[in-house]
Amino acid sequence: MFDLTVKKLHEIVGGRLRLATLPPRGGEQGRVRDIVVDSRQVRRGDVFWGLPGTCFDGSQFAGDAYARGAEGAVVGQKYVQPSPGCWSLEVSDAAKALWQLARWNRERQTGRVVAVTGSVGKTTARQMIRAVLERQLCGTSSPKNYNNHVGLPLSMLAMDPRNDFAVLEMAANAPGEIARLAGLCQPQIGVITRTGDAHLGGFGSLEGVAAAKAELLDALPEDGHAVLFGDDPRLRKVADRCRAKILWFGRSIDNDVVATHVESGHGRLSFEVDGTSMSVAVWGRHHLPSALAAVAVGRIFGMRDVEISRGLAEFEPPPMRCQIVRTEEATIIDDTYNASPVAMRAALDLLRDFEAPGRRVVVCGDMRELGPDSARLHRLLGDQIVTHCGADLLLACGQFADDVVAGARAAGMPHLRAVAIEEVADLAARCEGLLRPGDVVLVKGSRALAMERVVASLAAPAVSCAT
Asked: What DSSP line would sit under 106-122, residue for residue?
């Protein structure tokens, strides 16, 4: 955590500071340690930040946080009596105060900030970029999926003025959100992995998606850099709004960073860039844009391609993103973190190309936030499950499960092999004992469905897990 006292925190965000009758050790000069927004995750010495929510005001959980060992609590417009040895800070708006603190820490930084966004691949790109830069430099990156109006400022609080870089992930489901996030973190380098039909309901069209992601370009300084997927025609169209220098990456030869000799199999993606061989431990060719973005960012920081290659070789993929789970009899592709049409198509590519003597099985949940096109895109998914990857069995779950099944049956899948199930719990129960020797099954769905429960049912008892 950064060097911050209770007194300095009070100066930054304002409000009314209360010390308990038995004051905390150090009083106002006591150090602020980790900031936590979920009272259930509080550890001794933490500061609980009670944010307003759609259903609850986090301030009401300050007492629980003290009971778990919190030393302080920041709350919005609510009187909170601090526990003995603790303090509380009452502010007019806890969310705004969090942004004020993040902005203060951003102003202290001397290293460069890299902001990463895109419809798909942003988390993988963010982690690949960090793996590359850490070969020669010191820095931080967003933890987990801390990429929204709460996660980004929390990520920024972990930035250290002594570091060389910070890689921050940004997500949005409506116009204007990227602009606001980028305005907070003020990146010198902006990365857009690609555009697609994720969160289509909030943007209205694919062009709307591209325009929203391009809000990042508006925030870059003239001496900054934009790192863009050049094989995406929608990004090409919006790039003229960028003042910073653009580095294009992709497979076409008109890019600045071009991948050749691309091969994927057995858990590795291999390619060459300007004669340097590179390899990264991921399943599927769809990870190539993320890897190339990391190459481009490494070059901006002055790294040689051979060092960039070594950084990619040390990359460890995040869980629930094309993670391979092997049981005694079958193979499970755990891609359950989230789902969109473009991500589903990439996962189907992997299933199609996977070497397996048994059946190809798809277990899928809804793709959320697609707006009026939801039913049509789910029927198209059902069609692709049959025509694109030749699946032998389909189990679909969620609000649009019937549309997925209808699309698969219309494409020729026998009725008994395409099944719609309403609840994930019922789907998980249905999957127990489903697999046969040699089968490979893809499990994927939107985060809200928590499809990892299905993986647990399929894998029990699992004997090994590999990525």
From this structure: HHT--SEEEEEE-SSSH
* Greatest pairwise CA separation for the chain in angstroms: 74
The total domain count for the chain is: 3
Identify whether residues 143 and 279 lie together within a single domain: yes
| C-alpha closest to that of 182 among 212, 216, 149 | 216
Q: Are residues 382 and 270 in the same domain?
A: no
Q: Does pLDDT of 463 surpass 60? A: no
The total number of residues written for the chain in this structure: 467
Other CB atoms within a 10 A radius of the CB of residue 211 amount to 19
- Three-state secondary structure call for residue 263: strand
Q: State whether 219 and 172 are in the same domain.
A: yes
Q: Tell me, yes or no, whether 291 and 155 share the same domain.
A: yes
Q: Do residues 396 and 430 make contact, with C-beta atoms less than 8 angstroms apart? A: no
pTM over 0.70: yes
Q: How far apart are CA 387 and CA 389, in angstroms?
A: 6
pLDDT > 90? residue 49: yes
* Axis crossing angle, helix 288-300 with helix 305-313, rounded to the nearest 10: 140
DSSP helix/strand/coil, 268? strand
